[in-house]
Amino acid sequence: MHITQSRSNRDRDTVCDHGVSLSSALLKAFDESRTGVRGLVESGVSSVPAIFLHPDPYASVPLSPQGVSIPIVDLSVPAPVAAAAVAAATRDGGFFHIVNYHHLHPALITADYPARALAAVRAFNELPGPERAKLYARAPVDGGVSYSSNVDLFRSPSAN
Prior knowledge:
The protein is mainly α. 32% of the residues lie in helices and 4% in strands.
């Protein structure tokens, strides 16, 4: 199925072929490409697709549901506890905030760690689409690394 992206957010629920809403069809096509947002850039998209736009950017609705927060992993706790927290945070949310890492051995966490982490993310995103697609998964991968768009891609009012 080929879908031409609408530039207007009001067209999110327009029905296209086979009675599928435009936004549902776009989300499905985006997810099945298995290349994420970088794949959109590589395909030549020059404007933000409507599926990534919030219906009302000035709404007084909170950006996240009440009680939802970024997981915090405290590295001052025993290593097995910290490792379990990292595993849970990456499995359940895909990201986390690390605190109390300065006490670790300097060879593990150095001052250039943030720059090295960003370089690793950049290097991954600069891999060819087929290489990134091998790691794209909507469900948790046992013993491996995966990535995807937002975990609630098909339930959220917009992709991210």
